[in-house]
Design a protein that fits this description.
By secondary structure, this protein is an alpha/beta fold. 33% of the residues lie in helices and 23% in strands. It has an eight-stranded mixed beta sheet, with helices on both faces. Helix 3 (74-80) crosses helix 5 (105-112), helix 4 packs across helix 7 (131-142) and helix 9 crosses helix 13. The chain is elongated. Cytidine-5'-monophosphate binds at residues 194, 254, 273-275, 277, 304, 306-308, 322-324, 337.
């Protein structure tokens, strides 16, 4: 989502500036182009060398280079940016921003910036709570500045309270959310997304499951939610955190997932079936742990209900998207599944492809609908999720 985005990272004089290095690295690895502007005092907290290396560009502090008179144009920088992110934002800088003081490059760039501005305040708890700081923050909010709330915790002063800059990962999430706000194209829609692996108990200790990490389904839930849809994520076992704004229903077995889906499908606008659902479950679940013996053990398994096929029969005007993980005759098998389960389209991942499948952060997929097949290149799972969301949007029902 941040691929190709131009972000100015402003750093002010606060001890939290040490976190700006990690923040810069995260933004760059998410595909953003980052230019760093620092206040003169910020250089005391983190070196220009560190920030220049991580952002892959010289950092900017002064209006001009005293050696050769080269001008650092805050106007051009302001025009270039898609977002101006000031992290950390000190009480001093916030006060100046609130009143339009422009006595350093970071501040003149603020006044020149035509793009959205986000700040991550960082300061001691008493400075943060001070009425003057609160008044300035209120003013900045009114001026349209997005404030990434500080957290509560251990502060550099040795005290504990509110004022600790949000963690770099949280700031990146907030930045992503900011970029997605514009595109509320699925507002008013409600989708179910199944994700993760189901668990079929054998006895109180053991179960049958699979390698699904849930990453693809969670990325789809996030992509749909960021486009304004209400999303209910019906999740089997995963180690993932629920994306912001998404409602998660935790289930264990295929049967639980079936019930959770069937119950909610009618009132929804569609479902994306991304979970790796067990096809077989033990006929009986032993009440006590099965003792080992020297003999082989056979387990009787019965078929589980096919959730996707059931929803396919009740689909009506709703959108239904399926997944296929194939190891041979991939396209033909996926086509067959598309018809049998009444999907609008199916996302085929082949286990034969490098970078595709379980656990990883990337995938190689083909989007197959009744009339076409589009093979996408190797992409991050979140980019694949965006393409799936685009296709759902194009069905627009
Ligand atoms: O037939 P197969 O299991 O390969 O189909 C895969 C698709 O069907 C996926 O979208 C998967 O989430 C869904 N499915 C389901 N319920 C099952 C088995 C698969 O919803 N019991």
């Amino acid at each position: 989502m941040l691929k190709g985005k131009h972000i100015i990272l402003g750093i002010t004089g606060s001890i939290a500036a040490y976190k700006s290095a990690v923040l810069c690295r995260l933004l760059v690895s998410a595909g953003a182009e980052v230019r760093v502007v620092m206040t003169p005092l910020a250089k005391q907290f983190i070196t220009p060398l560190t920030m220049a290396t991580l952002s892959q560009h010289p950092i900017l502090v002064d209006f001009f280079n005293p050696e050769n008179g080269e001008w650092n144009s805050h106007v051009k920088l302001g025009e270039w940016a898609d977002l101006y992110l000031i992290a950390p934002a000190s009480a001093n800088t916030m006060a100046k921003m609130a009143t339009g003081v422009a006595d350093n490059l970071l501040l003149t760039t603020y006044l020149s910036a035509r793009c959205p501005v986000a700040i991550a305040p960082a300061m001691d708890l008493d400075m943060y709570a001070h009425i003057a700081t609160q008044r300035n923050m209120e003013q900045l909010r009114e001026d349209g500045v997005h404030i990434i709330e500080p957290g509560t915790g251990f502060l550099a002063s040795g005290l504990s309270g509110k004022g600790r800059m949000a963690e770099p990962e949280q700031i990146v999430e907030a930045v992503k959310a900011l970029f997605s706000v514009k595109k509320k194209s699925l507002e008013g829609k409600h989708y179910l997304v199944t994700a993760g692996a189901t668990i079929e108990p054998i006895d109180p200790v053991r179960f049958i499951s699979n390698h699904s990490s849930g990453k693809m389904g969670y990325a789809i839930a996030e992509a749909l939610s960021q486009r304004g849809a209400r999303v209910t994520l019906i999740s089997g076992r995963t180690a993932l955190a629920c994306p912001a704004g998404v409602e998660r229903v935790d289930v264990l077995s295929a049967r639980d997932m079936y019930e959770a889906c069937v119950e909610r499908f009618e009132e929804s606008d569609g479902a994306v079936m991304c979970a790796a659902v067990a096809d077989y479950t033990p006929v009986e679940v032993a009440e006590q742990k099965i003792k080992k013996s020297d003999d082989n053990l056979s387990l009787a398994l019965r078929r589980t209900d096919d959730i996707a096929a059931t929803l396919g029969q009740r689909k009506g005007h709703r959108v239904l998207v399926g997944f296929a993980m194939e190891t041979e005759a991939e396209e033909a098998n996926a086509q067959h599944k598309l018809e049998r389960k009444n999907f609008d389209f199916i996302v085929l991942n082949s286990l034969r492809e490098q970078g595709a499948g379980f656990r990883g952060d990337t995938n190689v997929v083909t989007l197959i609908d009744p009339t076409s097949a589009e093979k996408l290149p190797l992409m991050s799972k979140s980019d694949v999720a965006e393409r799936i969301a685009d296709k759902i949007e194009s069905l627009n029902r």
